[in-house]
Amino acid sequence: MVIWVSALTLGLAGSLHCLGMCGPIALALPRPATGTRLGFWTGRLLYNLGRATTYAALGALFGGIGRSIYMAGWQQGLSIACGAAILLYLAGRYLGMGRFHADAVLMKGIAPVQRALARRLGGGSSRGLFGIGLLNGLLPCGLVYVALAGAAATGDARHGALYMALFGIGTAPLMFAAGIAGPALYARWRGRFQWVIPAGLAALAVLFILRGLNLGIPYISPRFAADPGDPPACCSAGAHHAAD
């Protein structure tokens, strides 16, 4: 339960980051050809649904990768590594201890995505708005990388998809509001409450590290299953049973 709450909370807190990074896209969303208020609101909902759909697909991929690691018996190391990776990201981004340039490298490789996104921003159909959200979810973002680490730590494709879907749902309210309210909300909230993001990420990192330490604390640090063929302890119904 805690892991799902953390996914939703990460999305809610991280939506402040999303507003700064992807707010311009939300503001540039085309108006549906019908011009009705319902069509306008529906289009913004479809945009956010598209983002959540892409996140869920990526979560399934990374959850599957995490499953392979789990089957190899490295589930504790994976959880600790995810927590450490989040702390390194925080150190690089917020403490100035070196900078990661993964975004810049990835941006060079997603030129087709950027071109497709630009074309769809010129349209106004509901399908186009959903497609914009799908493509938006593929844009490089440090916060999404952190969430994908959490998806991998679930050790299962379905759980990874659910983790990322909850993350996407968490980012939706503020992004939806930005698409509705326009530049006024974007200008007001873009730089506010930025402390929430590093605080939330630090808490998530501690959670992953505690889970990896296998301390036997219900919901926080449950013991992993002794048999690699069993479901990961973080998500199984029998997570409260101690491993032999």
Describe this structure in words.
The chain has 244 residues and is mainly alpha-helical. Helices cover 70% and strands 0% of the residues.
Topology:
Elements: H1 2-27, H2 37-71, H3 75-94, H4 102-109, H5 111-121, H6 126-136, H7 142-153, H8 157-181, H9 183-189, H10 196-212
Helix pairs in contact: 1-8, 1-10, 2-6, 2-7, 2-8, 3-7, 3-10, 5-6, 7-8
Task: Sum up the structure in keywords.
single chain; 244 residues; mainly alpha; 10 helices; 70% helix; elongated; disordered C terminus
CA-based gyration radius: 19 Å
> What is the number of domains?
1
Query: Would you identify the regions where 5 or more consecutive residues have pLDDT less than 50?
Result: 226-233, 236-244
For the largest beta-sheet, the strand count, sense and barrel status come to:
none
On the 0-100 scale, what is the average pLDDT?
75
How do the SSEs run, as a string of H and E?
A: HHHHHHHHHH
Give the class from helix and strand content and strand pairing. Answer: mainly alpha
Shape: elongated
Count of strand segments: 0
**Can you count the helices?**
10
Cα distance spanning the termini: 23 Å
